[in-house]
Design the sequence.
């Protein structure tokens, strides 16, 4: 079964740091680019970051550029999101998602992990 | 930045009737190199992650019922549900891909309910 499982979401103070993880199974992880997408409470979807299949290229939304770092470990079938200088507006459910590679859409999603930034 | 604008924000349709959701991009998502529109549609039911329905503007993802169809090109796109079923109650999002640099933008979502 193709599956993505996120972890690492907690309550953190403004200015703090956090590392999210996403464990992939059921597909050849290093064949695909991967995304992080977030959803603030009661709001829509916001694309956060993309990493190429080999980790050689990374891209970020303007809202997180310079504060978040996406990475992957293909030997562990894992995706990561290092989040620094967290703000209240980063509070959201964070999903990892698999890129289709051909249609530039996201065909497999995890259930998400919740990050709350609050003092 | 590319902006995706969906209309309406919410929609109530009777069971068995047609539902139509529109998505407008501030820039064309048609790539002349391969004549493909990089526009996708997702369905998100309460408490669930999004599910890919349509990609390349009109290609149904495997397993998606054929009552779901996508159309449009360039900047204007439509998701149509031909005969609404109770299980189609959800929020629907369009998403575009821009290549240089790679950039993905979602519409604000359209909430579909039963009338």
Sequence:
């Amino acid at each position: 079964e193709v599956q993505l499982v996120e972890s690492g979401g907690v309550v953190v103070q403004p200015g703090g740091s956090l590392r999210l993880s996403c464990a992939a199974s059921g597909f050849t992880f290093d064949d695909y680019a991967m995304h992080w997408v977030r959803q603030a409470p009661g709001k829509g979807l916001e694309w956060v970051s993309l990493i190429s299949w080999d980790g050689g290229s990374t891209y970020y939304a303007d809202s997180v550029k310079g504060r978040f770092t996406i990475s992957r470990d293909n030997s562990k079938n894992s995706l990561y999101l290092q989040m620094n200088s967290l703000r209240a507006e980063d509070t959201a459910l964070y999903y990892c998602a698999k890129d289709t590679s051909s249609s530039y859409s996201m065909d497999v999603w995890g259930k998400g992990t919740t990050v709350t930034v609050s003092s | 930045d590319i902006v995706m604008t969906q209309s309406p924000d919410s929609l109530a349709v009777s069971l068995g009737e047609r539902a139509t959701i529109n998505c407008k991009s501030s820039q064309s998502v048609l790539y002349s190199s391969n004549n493909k529109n990089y526009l996708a549609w997702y369905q998100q039911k309460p408490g669930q992650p999004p599910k890919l329905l349509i990609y390349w503007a009109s290609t149904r993802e495997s397993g998606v019922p054929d009552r779901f169809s996508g159309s449009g090109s360039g900047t204007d796109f439509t998701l149509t549900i031909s005969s609404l079923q109770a299980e189609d109650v959800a929020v629907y999002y369009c998403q575009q891909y821009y290549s240089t640099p790679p950039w993905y933008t979602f519409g604000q979502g359209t909430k579909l309910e039963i009338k």
Remarks:
- Chain B has a mean pLDDT of 96.
